[in-house]
Specification:
The complex is a heterodimer. Chain A is mainly alpha-helical. Chain A has two domains: about 80 residues, no CATH class; about 190 residues, no CATH class. Chain A contains 15 helices and two strands. Chain A has a two-stranded antiparallel ribbon with strand order 1-2. In chain A, a hairpin with a 2-residue loop joins strand 1 and strand 2. In chain A, helix 5 packs across helix 14. Chain A is globular, with a radius of gyration of 21 Å. Chain A starts with a helix and ends with a helix. By secondary structure, chain B is mainly α. Chain B folds into two domains: about 110 residues, no CATH class; about 45 residues. Helices cover about 75% and strands about 0% of the residues of chain B. In chain B, helix 2 crosses helix 4. The chains are: A mainly alpha, B mainly alpha. At the A-B interface, helix 1, helix 2, helix 3, helix 4 and helix 5 of A face helix 1, helix 2, helix 3, helix 4 and helix 5 of B.
Chain lengths: ~290, ~160
């Protein structure tokens, strides 16, 4: 069997993942109290950090364990490894379908809430940090794979917009699980927003962000575990279905419009493949 | 456009990788939350079957949806109240803790960070890093606040 041989040839990679999984699960969930709530450290965060530490692209130590070919081969495994998790979420949504339907209006409305990045991050990027058109790629979405495809299609990834979306993508990949775990645990323990609303918001990003977020929420409010998982999963499914279109037809035109309002006079006719005709923005980048 | 192009799915390769991943998840489910091995094994087998069914739909359905969306849909449909065998399926998957299913995946993710991604992180600099934090926080808060408002309006 060709497929089995291919998987077996990566045995060192799988053994490392096995070791990290066991270590992470043995440590278990650690709760760190802070002023307004508590931050929860989850096994998935430890296994990610262990993976980074053993990555030959990041540490010299990693080169002792695996080669760069195995690192390349690990990338397509991530999306397959998250599939049982997605299946489990599905089996939690089915039995809770009544609750999902009664939360339907909120679930649909919060998909528009994805545009919250434009309200919070875009003005900070353009007005406070004085960024140029990188800000468009960086802030129009949560920068997961479908959003990269939108920017690649519209501006190419070599453009400033491309640099922006790739930068946020990489930071999200490196720190997204931590940021979601911290936000969810602090907001859940602070008790300002409805836990069901926090659960729905867990579904806005990647599978691992959702895992960190729901993990933190369910440990803060264990009595609502099934409902939290079901709502987050339903929201994530909606994001898969609508995210591409919200990004393409609403978010990207919105940031472009906002950019023209804020920068119009000094940045005329910018199209992403530009560069020569705008000394004002170029200076700010220096 | 590129996001709509349908990726090729190699069923036997997915089946083999999923087998390894399922074993890793079973180990995690046993050492972490301390769930019984046999119940966890059956639960993982059910999840495995759901994933393979979702992949088959993603590969052979006439219209395109991402495979994770199909997997989710299969999981939902077979556990809807009134579906044949629904109670049995739900009972089996309950022997698997949802959070442990992400632990092996994140280890692969840490090991998979490529050199050019490290380069991007270095050259983007602190401004992009700071903006990224606001992007993630803004998306989460935006969704949570709108959901909270709609839930309160509904009085639900």
């Amino acid at each position: 069997m060709e497929a089995v041989r291919k998987v077996a040839s990566l045995w060192r990679l799988h053994v490392l993942v096995l070791a990290f999984t066991i270590a992470a699960e043995l440590v278990g969930i650690v709760k760190i109290p802070i002023g307004i709530g508590a931050i929860l450290l989850l096994p998935l965060l430890y296994s990610f950090v262990l993976g980074l530490l053993a990555n030959p692209n990041i540490t010299a130590l990693g080169r002792k364990f695996i080669g760069s070919d195995e690192v390349k081969a690990a990338t397509p495994l991530i999306v397959i490894a998250i599939m049982p998790f997605i299946a489990k979420f599905g089996t939690t949504i089915g039995p809770a379908i009544d609750k999902i339907i009664s939360a339907g209006p909120a679930l649909l409305a919060q998909e528009i809430g994805n545009l919250g990045t434009i309200i919070l991050a875009f003005p900070i990027a353009v007005l406070v940090l004085r960024m140029g058109r990188e800000a468009i790629g960086a802030t129009f979405s949560i920068a997961r794979e479908p959003n990269i495809a939108i920017i690649a299609d519209r501006y190419t990834l070599k453009s400033k917009e491309g640099a922006g979306v790739l930068g946020v993508y990489v930071v999200g990949t490196l720190a997204g699980t931590f940021i979601f775990a911290v936000m969810a645990s602090v907001l859940a323990t602070a008790g300002i927003l409805d836990v069901r609303a926090l659960a729905m918001a867990c579904g806005v990003g990647s599978g691992s962000m959702m895992a960190a977020c729901t993990g933190a929420l369910t440990n803060a409010v264990p009595s609502m575990e099934d409902e939290i998982v079901a709502l987050a999963g339903a929201s994530n499914l909606l994001t898969y279905a609508t995210g591409l279109y919200v990004g393409l037809f609403i978010a990207l035109p919105m940031v472009n419009w906002a950019y023209r309002i804020l920068r119009g006079s000094e940045d005329e006719g910018a199209s992403g493949t530009d560069g020569a005709a705008k000394p004002a923005t170029n200076k700010q980048e220096g | 456009m590129s996001a709509i192009t349908r990726p090729h799915i190699d069923m036997s390769e997915h089946a083999a990788v999923l087998f390894v991943v399922s074993i890793l998840c079973l180990v995690a489910n046993t050492v972490g939350p301390g769930n019984p091995v046999v119940a966890g094994l059956i639960g993982m087998a059910v999840l495995y079957a759901i994933v393979m069914a979702g992949l088959a739909l993603a590969k052979w359905m006439p219209f395109y949806l991402p495979s994770v969306a199909w997997i989710s849909i299969v999981g939902i449909v077979i556990t809807l109240p009134g579906m044949p065998g629904q109670e049995w399926i739900v009972a089996q998957t309950e022997a698997v803790n949802f959070l442990i299913l992400a632990t092996p995946c994140l280890a692969y993710a840490g090991l998979a960070i490529a050199r050019n991604e490290i380069e991007i992180a270095k050259t983007s600099g602190w401004r992009i890093a700071l903006v990224a934090v606001f992007v993630l926080a803004g998306t989460y808060l935006g969704s949570a606040v709108i959901a909270h408002l709609v839930l309160s309006l509904q009085g639900a």
